[in-house]
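User: Could you walk me through two proteins back to back? I'd like the raw sequence and the structure tokens for each, with a short line separating them so I can tell where one ends and the next begins.

Assistant: Of course. Protein one, sequence then structure:
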Amino acid sequence: MAGIWGNRKKEREAQAAQDAEETRRAGAALVAIDERLRTTSDELVYAEAELGTEAVRPVRDAIEAVRQHLAEAFHLHQLNHDEIPDTSEELRTRSARIIQLCEWAEDLLDDRTEALAAPIERARRAPEIVAGIRRDAERLSARLPQTKTTLERLAARYSTDALRKVSGNHAEAEQLLSFALHGAEISERRRESGQREQANLALETAIEAIRRATTLIDAVDSYEVEALRAESTLDAIVLDSREDLAAARDIAHVPDVAAAMSTLERELTALTPAGALADPFAELTRLREANAALDVVVARVRERAARPVIPEAHVRHAVEDADRQLGVARSVISGHRGWIGADARTRLAEAERIRLDLATVVSGPVEEDDRERALADARRCGMLAAEALQLAQRDIDSSRPRDDDWGGGWGGRGGGRGGGGDVMGGILGGLVIGSILDGIFD
């Protein structure tokens, strides 16, 4: 008995130590978040001076929300340390709630202050960024004459539709560079006059204008290279297409092949003649699609020719055989429901599912491409039905009373081992013979 009381005392002491540790953690978390709130409030003053009132509103709202919830946490902490005795459960609940509130406050402040880190850094480096904008604008302006020359060279080689994506890049980039310099100047003036929020907004727009101008100028140079690559690829596909058309002549009597050949020949005829303004990208896309379509059709026809088409009669015969086997298995299992186990029922259910899927294929004329799959499904359906019947016979034999249970030998009620076993054996034999004949027909 003393051992039991001793164990209980140790458990109480361990629980009290755990509760005290939880209370200490709650107090430490409360002190930490209170300090974090104070430092964040101080940083907010500097952030507002750098970015303006509206930009730091999310942080200010977060600070207010944290203060409201910390009031609850301080109240709970006070209850844990007042003169009114509390139960261990109450102490644990309050401490857990204090820790939860402090963790939530930390996450909220982290999220809001991290969102301001990049704008603050950009605002503090504003003079350096403005100088970089001016250098980039000067460098890009020096590239504009070359960009204009490139566009003129492209216009002499390619059609208007082909140049639609880059034809206006020179004029747009020129406007963006002017806008970036203007934005940098406004940013400097607003910052000097103390309008930090407007200064930061002008700085961000100037940075974006430089980025877009760079993209537009680079796109012109890239387009010329891509256009040359498209022309080279187009020449290769033209050669390949003519070879494919010649190789497909022997099966041109197939309607699908004839249609694909006609489409490809039409695309080859529609190619822009030498010396005219072309759109290599559009022509490459159309010719590639027509070439790929012919390849697919030819491959399918040749594969079909290499593999003889299964007669539809074989598929119908296999389906009829599966229906016979399904009918027998379904009849036996439904007639001995109390004796049939899960294995036989599972085989029968799977066979019926396959037959149901097969019904949509064989409801009308079976397409040549579907016959092989339909034949395989029909045979599997029949095989599962035969297995279900065999398993059902096993369950019936194991559940039927033995001759000894009826009190008779060969002359008793259960005499003659023929009975149901011989009938079932005849059924199974018929099914096996049907499968063999099915294979002969195939």
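----
Protein two, same layout:
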Amino acid sequence: MAVGVLRTVPLDGELTSSLINRVAARYRLPASSVLRLWTCRNSVARHDGGGIRADAEIILNEAGRESLAELCGVKREVLTHALPAFAVDDPKISTGREAGVVQARWRVASTAAGVAAYGCQLCTARRTGQALRAVRYVPRWQRVCLRHGRWLLDADADHPLEHLELRRLPEVVGAQRRWPGVARRAVRAGVEPEQAFTLAHAVVARWWEQALSWEQEEIWPDRLHHLAGGNAGSRLAWWRIVGRDAAIFPEVVAVAQALLEPAMAEVAWQASGGMQPRARSADDPFCHRLGERVGRTWLGPELAADHGSPLNDWKGAIVRARRHETGPSD
């Protein structure tokens, strides 16, 4: 194989291992043949069943990075910019007597540069000319391919699905379009967008588990059946795991926006009794207002009855901060 004869351009955010797999396909070689270019003394990450994890990432030393740049036929700066793990160092291969040897070490992507998801194969084919699987570092708030209406799944799971179709779920696509505005609101409020999303996701994921006992809940079951291709059928429990993040995404974005609004914090403060604390009632105005924000006017009493939730922790933090600010000074 003549190095660099066929140019392979990286995708933005791609795993280094994913790029190497595409390089191998470009040369019509098995990935294992190309990987032999690097000396690797540990094993690739595998699932319990023995299959190689799609989010298995490879870390290269200095000599190894130069080798990959030559193999791809692109400048090293291009790889540094595109591949989040390309510049990650591992002392076991970057120092010592053999540091000059072309070396690599396997890791799981989450321990290298973040959470990994499958790339949209249609986008990959459009950008690279290769109709192949690609794996990219993609945060959980950017999982919708707006061009093709697909939800991109985590690459750490041991199942064959890479995406879920959203053609009949425009509200999920719409939530993705709204997220950048929520992220900007978070920044203006002095909150990291990741923090805002993580809190909202924890709140709504708890609702998702409780929703099995909510007789009036109709939105999520319908959405989940669409994600399953029309009917989850006997695999409902499996689809509840695989499809959860896509199914709850509109509510996560709505909750994230609501919890960033000063008006909602004020409602929480007033509902708590302010400087004269009172017990929460079933008609708690904050819970009622939040239920309305997610299209469920009946949800307020359910939220009010849940005292151990992430939402309750958020409300408690708001109330304690207000009481500290307005209370008598020492």
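The chain has a mean pLDDT of 93.

Let me know if you want the two compared in more detail.
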